[in-house]
Amino acid sequence: MPIRLGSPAPNFTAHSTKGDIDFHKFLGDSWGILFSHPADFTPVCTTELGLVAALQEEFEERDVKVIGLSANGLSEHDQWIKDINEVNNVNLQFPIIADGDRNVSTLYDMLDNQDPTNVDNDGIPYTVRSVFVIDPTKTVRLIMTYPASTGRNFDEILRVIDSLQLGDKHRITTPGNWKRGDDVIVHPDLSTAEAQRVFKDVRIIKPYLRLTSSPF
User: Is-contact 17 77, C-beta < 8 A?
Assistant: First the structure.
């Protein structure tokens, strides 16, 4: 079955740069991000992993555990991390899964089906740039897929996590281009009368569009 929003996040065991992991045990009661990379020692991936390492405190503040994946072995990963740290002036601490056999990539449908050149020496497809955000109940809450040629925007991923976490705590949704601290939308299931009891201020733009100050 394909993984969709609201699907249970499949569990797996794998080798990683931080030892063997059971994915669900690794996540525990935290939020999680699983994100894939086509291969080690590639330019776009090197910049991406450096960005994630630089944002480590931001993820920790949100109780998010990060785990990467690349279709190479542990020895390549260990050498690549040295390059990532040097190029980006970071200290990468999160685990990177060694998925040379593509077991996890296949389980999460992260293999490249578009670019026939994105294969290893054995002709096996590499992964595309997939992102899965998983909540503490092990439910998939966000799926993003970029082509191998395009680096991801991890500020956007943080923005979505902020929106999801806020919406889980309060009866709100977030408008386009919303960011932390901006006004939010009263959830459509909440009546205006009830919203006025729940929130400090409710501004009615349209009967179906009511804004309130961010609970952050």
Answer: yes
How far lies 107's CA from each of 11, 37, 73, 110, 207, in Å?
9, 15, 18, 8, 44
User: pTM for the full model?
Assistant: 0.91
Both tokens assigned to 116: 């026939």
Residue 127: give the domain boundaries. Answer: 13-152
The 3-state DSSP class for residue 125 equals strand
Per-residue confidence (pLDDT) for residue 135, from 0 to 100: 98
Which two structure tokens, joined as six digits, stand for 97? 């899964």
**Residues 211/205, Cβ–Cβ less than 8 Å:** yes
Q: Which of 40-44, 132-136, 148-152 has the lowest mean pLDDT?
A: 148-152
Tokens of 145: 């897929």
Angle between helices 43-54 and 154-169 (to 10 degrees): 40
Kindly give the pairing relationship between strand 184-186 and strand 172-173: antiparallel
**Residue with token string 């405190």:** 57
Q: Which residues are catalytic?
A: 45
Number of compact structural domains in the chain: 2
Three-point CA angle 62, 68, 73, nearest 5°: 155
In a domain, 51, yes or no: yes
